[in-house]
């Protein structure tokens, strides 16, 4: 991923030294991610999915969205090591830019990013609906599960158009259907629009509605069926974290797309800076799979109790736990 072969023949030693400095910095960040962030993110994403699926009866609407974000995070975790450990630095044969494996991993990353961003956007909209009209069917757990199914299906369908451009950009030019579709910039432009602009607009609209309704105190605020107040803090933290980590990636993707569409030769310093900026921005995008489950763990009030119940079940096995037996006897009495 990080290499300076392009500057080995350059007479300017400053360019070579600067390139190697960039190489060292990004390599250190990549190593820190693989050693610290990757195992922690993998563990917490798996725990988030396992704990909530084992406690389906107590799942709320935000829990369902975070389970989908965690599943997408697991996919991003699986893609990250292959990307950070290859291809050009390790010369892996499996990671050839004309290989189908590259396209497959890229599409998995794109689908996961779409699921993450749209889950955040729909969580914001559903939280507003729950604030405005408590106990409505639209923001119920049952309906949210079906919505999340559409999120995954929609992410695959919306990334299909960009998939065609990516595939045709890497396969042979002898295929007639791809002769006019070898345009990677079009695929990147589609991903910027559907993966960032659309969900960002939805989140901004939802936050404006939420701020407006929070200024109006109503008798519904005393309703015991409303979501826990910590959900609002979780929502704000999620939105801020997601867009902080994903905005650099989509901005650099847009900048590189516009630069390539101009068709002009870029300055070497600009080209090198853009290359390493794209690397850092993608590293930030990978770190979202590490940050999101930690936010859910430390802000959600329900997760620690669910985790304790799951651990007690695993400890007791098939036998009824003593504290459950006592509770049953008290109920019978």
UniProtKB/TrEMBL annotation:
Location in or out of the cell: Cell membrane
Superkingdom to which the source organism belongs: Eukaryota
Protein name: Probable G-protein coupled receptor 146
One family name in Pfam for this protein: 7tm_1
Residue ranges crossing the lipid bilayer per the database entry: 31-53, 65-86, 101-125, 146-167, 189-213, 234-259, 279-299
Domain G-protein coupled receptors family 1 profile, residue spans: 44-296
Signal sequence interval, chain numbering: none
Family annotation (PROSITE patterns): G_PROTEIN_RECEP_F1_2 (PS50262)
An annotated Gene Ontology molecular function: G protein-coupled receptor activity
Cell membrane among keywords: yes
Entry keyword set: Cell membrane, G-protein coupled receptor, Membrane, Receptor, Transducer, Transmembrane, Transmembrane helix
Keyword Transmembrane carried by entry: yes
Species per Swiss-Prot/TrEMBL record: Python bivittatus (Burmese python)
Gene3D superfamilies assigned: Rhodopsin 7-helix transmembrane proteins
Main location: membrane
UniProt topology in membrane: Multi-pass membrane protein
Alphabetized InterPro entries for the sequence: GPCR_Rhodpsn (IPR000276), GPCR_Rhodpsn_7TM (IPR017452), GPER1-like (IPR047143), GPR146 (IPR037487)
Gene Ontology cellular component terms for the protein in this record: plasma membrane
């Amino acid at each position: 991923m990080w290499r300076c072969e392009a500057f080995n023949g350059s007479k300017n030693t400053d360019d070579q030294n600067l390139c190697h400095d960039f190489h060292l910095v990004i390599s250190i960040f990549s190593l820190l991610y693989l050693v610290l962030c990757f195992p922690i993110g993998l563990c917490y994403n798996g725990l988030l999915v396992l704990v909530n699926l084992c406690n389906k009866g107590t799942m709320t609407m935000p829990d369902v969205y975070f389970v989908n974000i965690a599943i997408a995070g697991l996919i991003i975790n699986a893609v990250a090591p292959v990307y950070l450990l290859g291809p050009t630095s390790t010369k892996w044969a499996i990671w050839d830019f004309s290989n189908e494996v590259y396209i497959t991993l890229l599409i998995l990353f794109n689908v996961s990013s779409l699921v993450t961003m749209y889950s955040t956007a729909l969580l914001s909209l559903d939280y507003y609906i729950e604030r405005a009209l408590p106990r409505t069917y639209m923001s119920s757990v049952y309906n949210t599960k079906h919505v999340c199914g559409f999120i995954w299906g929609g992410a695959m369908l919306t990334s299909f158009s960009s998939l065609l451009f990516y595939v045709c950009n890497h396969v042979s030019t002898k295929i007639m259907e791809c002769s006019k579709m070898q345009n990677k910039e079009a695929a990147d432009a589609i991903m910027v629009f559907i993966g960032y602009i659309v969900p960002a607009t939805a989140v901004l609209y939802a936050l404006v509605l939420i701020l407006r309704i929070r200024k109006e105190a109503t008798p519904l605020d005393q309703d015991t069926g409303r979501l826990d107040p910590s959900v609002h803090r979780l929502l704000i933290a999620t939105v801020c974290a997601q867009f902080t980590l994903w905005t650099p990636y989509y901005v650099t993707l847009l900048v590189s797309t516009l630069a390539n569409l101009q068709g002009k030769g870029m300055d070497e310093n600009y080209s090198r800076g853009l290359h390493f900026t794209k690397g850092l921005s993608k590293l930030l995008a990978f770190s979202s799979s590490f940050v999101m489950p930690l936010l859910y763990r430390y802000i959600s009030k329900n997760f620690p109790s669910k985790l304790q119940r799951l651990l007690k079940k695993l400890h007791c096995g098939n036998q009824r736990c003593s504290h459950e037996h006592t509770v049953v006897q008290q109920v019978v009495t």
